[in-house]
């Protein structure tokens, strides 16, 4: 569908008039920005390699209500992690399958629809401050349709040892479904938590086509720490566009681990910025595609203040006619002396038809820094394959072992426990010779 379709959807949504004035103004700004920009095309440099024309295949629409049937209950039983969680189906909150017990003192988790009623003052100051509606067309569209998602707040020095999970299930129904979740994290001084965003599909048929347009905003206070995991494994007709925006205070620590396995088209963006000295940031990503999947990854890391360090490692594994991209940028501003930053992209192509476009970038305007970047694209090592096969290991199994070894560095970066177990399960379903595990 064209931009006019999504603008019409947003206008109909806003016409309900069920929001306070400040929220309605926020939504209207999003719609205005979206109408001014329109959908990006291949002529837009930032979207040159993302085939958003895929969105014209179905008339995606948000849903008002969902029924949590047996398929949803089974999916939650399979995908849920121990501890507190919010469950959403096609963008709608499902209270019966969510768990809000076990939250430590000072840690508050609630669906955004509830927070918009109860925490208006906080959200008025927070929404859109990191992901402004003017950023690009899809942040604008998310703002225009803002209604549901999650709010996670941590009081100063609050500690949440058990991961908090946000489980988004894309099922689709009578028609193609559009979901626009907005996640807001506000971590007070000295607080610490782990957040897991899981996106999974329940249907792979044409009637189950889904479009998830997600935005996450993370604000870390001084000396706060957040580990963020994103596990994306939606169905094979799904479109997923996600943006993570973070801002770090003094001596804060932020880790982003993005695992992209599903979807016909999936694009993950990470925009991280240092707002205080002494911060540490880790951006890791693993994308594994086959068939005709298109998996895009973009990072933008802003070293705006001195004495901060960042480490960035993205790996891609592509088979059949799948295509992937990694476009990363580290910007070191003039006053950001003593910056220590590195960025690496490594990619493995398992077939002649697979393609990858890798483009790490450094923009350095300071002179007392330590920065490096690099990229590599290759195929499985023939000598290693020969060695394994000479020991009686079948070719497919040998390819599977080498591919798993290539990806293991990023899997091992996840602490042992249920999150790593889920990542390992998803990866196993994408390795050569395996039946694909989606959702």
UniProtKB/TrEMBL annotation:
Pinpoint the SUF system FeS cluster assembly SufBD N-terminal domain residues. Answer: 19-166
| InterPro entries from the UniProt entry | Fe-S_cluster_assembly_SufBD, SUF_FeS_clus_asmbl_SufBD_core, SUF_FeS_clus_asmbl_SufBD_sf, SUF_FeS_clus_asmbl_SufD, SufBD_N
Listed SUPFAM superfamilies: Stabilizer of iron transporter SufD
The protein's matches in Pfam families, at most eight in alphabetical order, are given as:
SUFBD_core (PF01458), SufBD_N (PF19295)
Ranges of residues in domain SUF system FeS cluster assembly SufBD core: 177-406
The entry sums up its family as follows: Belongs to the iron-sulfur cluster assembly SufBD family.
Which NCBIfam families does this entry report, sorted A to Z? Answer: sufD
Q: What is this protein called?
A: Fe-S cluster assembly protein SufD
Name its species.
Answer: Corallococcus caeni
């Amino acid at each position: 569908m064209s931009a006019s379709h999504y603008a019409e959807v947003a206008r109909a949504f806003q016409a309900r008039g069920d929001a306070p004035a400040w929220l309605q103004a926020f939504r209207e700004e999003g719609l205005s920005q979206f109408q001014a920009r329109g959908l990006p095309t291949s002529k837009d440099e930032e979207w040159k390699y993302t085939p958003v024309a895929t969105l014209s295949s179905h008339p995606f629409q948000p849903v008002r209500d969902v029924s949590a049937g047996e398929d949803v209950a089974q999916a939650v039983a399979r995908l849920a992690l121990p501890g507190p969680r919010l469950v959403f189906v096609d963008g709608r909150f499902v209270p019966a399958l969510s768990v809000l017990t076990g939250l430590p003192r000072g840690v508050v988790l609630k669906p955004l629809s509830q927070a918009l009623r109860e925490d208006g003052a906080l959200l008025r100051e927070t929404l859109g401050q990191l992901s402004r509606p003017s950023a690009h067309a899809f942040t604008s569209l998310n703002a225009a349709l803002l209604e549901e998602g999650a709010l996670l707040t941590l009081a100063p020095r609050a500690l949440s040892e058990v991961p908090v999970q946000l489980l988004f299930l894309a099922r689709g129904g009578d028609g193609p479904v559009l979901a626009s979740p907005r996640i807001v994290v506000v971590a007070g001084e000295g607080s610490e938590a782990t957040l897991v965003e899981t996106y999974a599909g329940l249907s792979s048929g044409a009637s189950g086509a889904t479009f998830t347009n997600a935005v996450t905003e993370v604000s870390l206070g001084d000396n706060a720490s957040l580990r963020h995991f994103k596990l994306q494994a939606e169905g094979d007709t799904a479109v997923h566009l996600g943006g993570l925006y973070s801002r770090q205070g003094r001596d804060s620590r932020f880790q982003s681990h993005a695992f992209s396995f599903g979807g016909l088209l999936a694009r993950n963006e990470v925009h991280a910025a240092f707002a205080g000295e002494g911060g540490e940031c880790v951006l890791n990503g693993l994308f594994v595609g086959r068939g005709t999947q298109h998996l895009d990854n973009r990072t933008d890391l802003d070293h705006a203040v001195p004495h901060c360090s960042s480490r960035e490692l993205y790996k891609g594994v592509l088979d059949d006619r799948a295509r992937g991209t990694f476009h990363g940028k580290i910007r070191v501003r003039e006053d950001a002396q003593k910056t220590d930053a590195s960025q690496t992209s490594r990619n493995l192509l398992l077939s002649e038809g697979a393609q990858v476009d890798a483009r790490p970038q450094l923009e350095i305007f300071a002179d007392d820094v330590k920065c490096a970047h690099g990229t590599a694209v290759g195929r499985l090592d023939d000598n290693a394959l020969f060695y394994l096969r000479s020991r009686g290991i079948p070719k497919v199994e040998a390819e599977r072992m080498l591919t798993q070894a290539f990806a293991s560095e990023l899997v091992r970066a996840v602490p042992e426990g249920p999150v790593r177990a889920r990542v390992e399960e998803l990866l196993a379903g994408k390795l050569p010779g395996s039946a694909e595990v989606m959702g």
